[in-house]
Amino acid sequence: MPTLHLEIVTPEARIYQAEVEAVVVPGVEGELGILPHHVALMTQIVPGELRISHEGQQLRMAVGEGFLDVLPNRVLILTDMAIDEADIDEHAAEKAVALAEQELKNTTLSHEEIATVQSSLLRSLAKIRVKRGSHY
Q1: CB-based contacts of 65: which residues, under 8 Å, 6+ apart?
Q2: Which of 22, 64, 75, 91 has its CA 20 to 30 A from that of 16?
Q3: How many CB atoms lie within 10 A of CB 118?
Q4: How far apart, in whole angstroms, are the C-alpha atoms of residue 23 and residue 60?
């Protein structure tokens, strides 16, 4: 079966690297399915669920904002967050959602502060969705 080389990189480390059969990525205009020999593509990704088909298994990760770079047999994901489903602390993510929602009620926040809180909220919601196994 044909494969493609997948690499997931955050500012902290290379999170994942393997030969995989397929990748489904949350893009700005919806989910993108990437198979071997995909046409070259570069686009923005949004917080959500990343699904990887590897050796007959389905791996799931919560990813944050970033970029996707696709060549026919290589996929590079540069993101501010990538957490394996097993490593997600659902309780902490729920607390982060509640805190962000409370902060957004503050009417004195600047536009930059609102954007930061909204970004945090979206990353936390992505973690919860992946952990609970619910799709968009």
Answers
A1: 44, 45, 46, 47, 79, 80, 119, 122
A2: 91
A3: 13
A4: 10
Q: Check: CB of residue 61 under 8 Å from CB of residue 96.
A: no
4-9 vs 74-79, strand pairing mode: parallel
| Residue in this structure with the two tokens 């399915």, named with its chain if needed | 33
Q: How much is the pLDDT for 134?
A: 57
- Going by pLDDT thresholds of 50, 70 and 90, the confidence category of residue 34 is very high
pLDDT, position 35: 95
Does 3.40.50.300 match the CATH number of domain 4-85?
A: no
Q: Sorting pLDDT into bands at 50, 70 and 90, what band is 133? A: confident
